UniProtKB/TrEMBL annotation:
This is Efflux RND transporter periplasmic adaptor subunit. Keywords: Coiled coil, Membrane, Transmembrane, Transmembrane helix. NCBIfam families: RND_mfp. Residues 254-327 form the CusB-like beta-barrel domain. One of its GO terms (cellular component) is efflux pump complex. Residues 84-230 form the Multidrug resistance protein MdtA-like barrel-sandwich hybrid domain. InterPro entries: Beta-barrel_RND_2 (IPR058792), MdtA-like_BSH (IPR058625), RND_pump_MFP (IPR006143), YknX-like_C (IPR058637). The lineage of its organism: Bacteria, Pseudomonadati, Pseudomonadota, Gammaproteobacteria, Lysobacterales. PANTHER family: HLYD FAMILY SECRETION PROTEIN, MULTIDRUG RESISTANCE PROTEIN MDTA. Residues 132-190 form a coiled coil. The keyword Disulfide bond does not apply. Belongs to the membrane fusion protein (MFP) (TC 8.A.1) family. It holds the Pfam family Beta-barrel_RND_2. The keyword Membrane applies. It comes from Marilutibacter aestuarii.
Length: 416
């Protein structure tokens, strides 16, 4: 039992004894120093970030530079279209014998584009010719008989006056003459009808030749020799409805859709500058031809036709194009400097009786005094103080000053 008691005494904890020395004290001290430094850096970053003003921005758009003194009042996009474009077909149904066109080929009005098999048309023409010849022969025969009948009637008239023949014989000769005269008229009319039928048959032969209706360029070849072509769709995939498509390149123009809210800026004969998507550095002079007097209810737009003042083979149908509607400067302002840029109206503020705009440069703002021109919708025309491409602050806070650091707020999808 004494042994068990001794063992229990060894297991008893002496709470008055000093703690044993430990080697982790310096480690905890190092961690504490690092944590203090990290908190200091984080605090500095938060302080620096909090010093930048969060702003929304927009880019100044240059206007009037390429218009020779004209200011752009509206931009729109559209497509090049042709006013004269035709898919050429034959007037009759037939088998294609020969196709004489290729894509890109220029044709003149009346040039042969294709021919159809003329066997049926030629047979109809031959039949009409034979019928006309028969009608002429019949008319000639009746005319010869009539000539004899007239001579006989004249001779019997003399004999009847001398009472050498009976009156009945004379009356019979007169009746035969009149009958032949009527037959001759009928034969002549039959010959005229046969001549008309021959003309129709010749038109049928001519219809086997497909000609270009106007001068232009072939943009599509739709048929090949051996295929059946018809002016009416047969509802299947084995009958063509056209030989090819030609476009009058002199009839090319631009069609754009302008929003209803801005259509008031567009006027007939208004100068326009067109830029093809394929040639962004090529500025093409144009003008408004017409404003179509109908609106698209679904898109809330009005169609505007624009005509090119210059013709060029590089302009082809269905090309995308961007147009700028230009406002002609007044004669008394012809020597005035061209307008500068367009910016949203909220980018200009008035401070100390001066109009300012804040331009963002390398994370800071520079206050610039600007000269405001016209008001174009929700934009202002800045004639001095800004250049195209400058990034300006929208609705700058009252405390924003020249040289302040700013942070550009990401666009949330709303119009800035």
């Amino acid at each position: 039992m004494s042994t068990s008691a001794d063992l229990l005494k060894e297991l008893r904890i002496d709470r008055n004894a000093s703690p044993p020395p430990s080697g982790r004290g310096p480690l905890f001290a190092g961690i504490a120093v690092v944590a203090v430094l990290a908190l200091g850096v984080l605090g500095w970053l938060l302080f620096a970030r909090g010093g930048a003003t969060e702003v929304r921005t927009a880019t100044a758009v240059a206007i009037g530079g390429a218009g020779g003194g004209n200011a752009s009042v509206l931009d729109a996009t559209g497509y090049v279209v042709a006013r004269r474009i035709a898919t050429v077909s034959a007037k009759i149904t037939g088998r294609v014998r020969e196709v004489l066109i290729e894509e890109g080929q220029s044709v003149e009005a009346g040039d042969v584009m294709a021919t159809l098999d003329p066997v049926d048309a030629n047979a109809q023409e031959s039949l009409a010719q034979a019928q006309l010849a028969a009608a002429h022969s019949q008319a000639s025969s009746i005319q010869a008989q009539l000539k004899e009948a007239e001579s006989n009637a004249t001779r019997l008239a003399t004999l009847a006056r001398q009472q050498l023949v009976s009156k009945s014989q004379y009356d019979q000769a007169i009746a035969q003459r009149d009958a032949l005269r009527a037959q001759l008229v009928t034969a002549q009319r039959t010959a005229a009808v046969a001549a008309d039928q021959l003309d129709i048959a010749e038109i049928g032969v001519d219809n086997t030749i497909v000609r270009a209706p106007f001068a232009g360029v072939v943009i599509a070849k739709a048929a090949q020799p051996g295929e059946i072509i018809s002016p009416l769709s047969a509802g299947g995939g084995y009958t063509r409805t056209g030989i090819g498509t030609i476009v009058d390149m002199d009839s090319l123009e631009v069609e754009v859709d302008v929003g209803e809210a801005f259509i008031g800026r567009v006027k007939p004969r208004m100068p326009v500058e067109a830029t093809l998507n394929a040639y962004p550095d090529w500025k093409i002079p144009a003008e408004v031809i017409a404003i179509i007097p109908a609106a698209d209810r679904g898109k809330a737009t009005v169609k505007v036709r624009i005509g090119f003042k210059e013709k060029d083979p590089r302009i082809v149908p269905d090309m995308g194009v961007r147009v700028s509607f230009l406002e002609q400067a007044a004669p008394e302002q012809a020597d005035a400097p061209p307008p500068g840029v367009l910016v949203p109206a909220s980018a200009v503020v008035e401070r100390d009786e001066a109009q300012l705009a804040f331009v963002v440069v390398d994370g800071k703002v520079a206050a610039r005094t600007v000269r405001v021109g016209r008001t174009l919708g929700e934009d202002l025309e800045i004639t001095d103080g800004l250049a195209g491409g400058d990034v300006v602050v929208l609705s700058p806070p009252a405390e924003l000053a020249d040289g302040d650091a700013v942070e550009v707020k990401e666009d949330d999808g709303s119009n800035s």
